[in-house]
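User: I'll paste a sequence; please echo it back and then give the predicted structure.

Assistant: Echoing your sequence first, then the prediction.
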Amino acid sequence: MYDIIIVGSGTAGMTAAIYSARANRKVLVIEQLICGGQIVNAEKVENYPGIKSISGADYSMTLFEQATELGAEFIFAAVTAVTKDNKGFTVTADNNTYDSHALIIATGAKNRPLGINGEERYIGKGISYCATCDGAFYKDKTTAIVGGGNTAIDDALYLGTMCKKVYVIHRRDAFRGEAIKVSAMKEKENIELVTDSIVTGLLGDDKITGVTVKSKLTNKETALNIDGLFVAIGQMPDNMIFNKLVNLDDKGYIVANEDCKTKTEGLFTAGDCRTKAVRQLSTAAGDGTVAAVTALEYITGLGY
């Protein structure tokens, strides 16, 4: 019987593990893929307080080592069911079950697809959702990025160091990313901004050779010849497995306030998977802290 089970090992999940383990509690973290979540793919993290610059992989490994050295246990498995009775929670993962007094959901979010015909067909054949993972395949080639937030801009700056040409396709005329990053992107001679535009089609046979882009101002469609397309249009949660124990908003995020409490006693949520205005590493760490402290108060109140 664990005191706290945490589902997900991004910044929120591992922060919760650190705080829970420091309280000398028996903690289990269940992760389906790799520790760190989306940030593990970032070439550089430069907006986390106290750390001037670090790779996403190094940042994630540091959190993992800190949590495990404090005694948190990790298993890598896909959670398929969660139930609650008067004894606590039972989590099923890869046909094994794990019991706990309290549960923290910190599953983060996954990449949002473009949602146009042929997208799945070209994944791995010219379409990627991770520039730092696949950018090296396009050295001295032409690529395009779809998106207007920090991730898209970071991807553009990264690809701009190796690609011959980088198009940044954004549906608005202004970018949502940090001003300093937008300025750096605009200064790159090999980065061309295609604003007020949307991708309407994918071109190619066995692999991507181009995209059709439609101007929202003129309705004119233009074909761009590219070798690779990187999609960075945000993320979406994957919380349906918990829907009997939590309320979800219309976008699928777990409804919870800053106290990280859900509608079910003993069940907390943290990080990008919950309803919130800002999703950054710092807010994920804050959520992980709050969820852990509140969960600890809960199980102490039960007499454990």
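The chain is about 25% helix and 30% strand. The CA atoms of residues 209 and 226 lie 5 Å apart.
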